[in-house]
Amino acid sequence: MAAAAWLDAPPAGWDDLLRSDPNATAAHRPELGQALTDTLPGHTARFAAVVADGELIGGAPAVVERRGGFQWIQSMPRVLPGAPLARAGRHAEVDRAVGAALAALRREARAVGGAWSLYRPRGPAVDPDALADLPGVTRMLESGVIELDRGLEAAWHRVDRKTRQEIRHARLTMRFAEDAAALEPAYALHAAQSRRWGGHAPLPLELSRRLLAAAGGAAPVARLFTARDARGLLSAALALDHARETLVWWSGTHAEGRAREAFGFLLWSIAEWAASAGRERLNLGASPGLDPVAAFKRSLGATALAYPVRWLDASGASLAGRLIAAAQGWRRRGRALGTPA
Asked: How far is it, in rounded angstroms, from Cα 121 to Cα 143?
């Protein structure tokens, strides 16, 4: 019988899971958990190792956040992918073992809340029994995913005609580059743009700096892409990267760039980069409650990929913890958390 144990570091064999499971993403890379731990106060990376008959058959990352004596459990912060990785044919039992381990960790921590994001683009669907012992509510999110495994030409044909024209026109005056040295001006664009988004706080600049730095000969966890014209930076995006998938995590576009469709040009150029690097898909992220943003992703040929997120409740927390959760819920009222499962 499979059982999961929590570790402070990835178990032996984790790299093999990252290579072999087609659902692996940059959020499963241990370097991301380490960068989060190093730059976000009170955050600690954990790894659930699922073992059967002495063999590692799967596992999942998680982050525990501590604030003022209270704890939250996230599969990964900002609803990053956290579905368990598993050996072929073992996903259902790994899901159940990780779900049981999360339930135990939630009880031990008397968690105030958290989320388990179960994005799994290549299936199988997450076993519903894995959620049975996690009090909370399940909502469905949709990520816009540009599929690249059938070739870039096939992906280009899925881009709508008007958007193809805009991208061709942008190529005449804009240039695309991977440019980690542009982090500070790119982050300034992102911070300025995000001020208009209610309740959103940009992640610290140092986190992005850590993710862009390659360590020990490994490929960097993140890559920074830019679109410029002769006058300067128009649009930028930081993408988390794995051998199978590139995920656009944050972005910023100058007002002039928005008027000239620089962001669409940038995203399609990232898709071209990802295809040339052998990535199977470009994940443009979820946009719950933002229909125009979802429509923009569809115009780039993205397919809406639905997946469940289990939002944990505070029923096991102390009275003070439950009051904090209630206050958080009141502040977040009206914020889209996905559609009912």
From this structure: 10
In terms of phi and psi (left: phi > 0; alpha: psi -120 to 50; beta: otherwise), the region of 320 is alpha
> Taking a C-beta distance cutoff of 8 angstroms, is the pair 302, 101 a contact?
no
| Cα dihedral across residues 101, 65, 282, 19: positive or negative | negative
Can you give the pTM of this predicted structure? 0.94
Could you give the CA distance from residue 208 to residue 238 in angstroms, rounded to a whole number? 8
CA torsion sign, 48 to 97 to 59 to 33? negative
Angle ∠(139,193,202) on CA atoms, nearest 5: 60
Q: Is the CA virtual torsion 96, 101, 105, 110 positive or negative?
A: positive
pLDDT in tens, the chain (341 residues): 898 999 999 999 999 999 999 999 999 999 999 999 999 999 999 999 999 999 999 999 999 999 999 999 999 888 899 999 999 999 999 999 999 999 999 999 999 999 999 999 998 999 889 998 999 999 999 999 999 999 999 999 999 999 999 999 999 999 999 999 999 999 999 999 887 766 667 889 999 999 999 766 689 999 999 999 999 999 999 999 999 999 999 999 999 999 999 999 999 999 999 999 999 999 999 887 788 899 999 999 999 999 999 999 999 999 999 999 999 888 877 676 788 87
Which structure tokens are listed for 3?
A: 């059982």
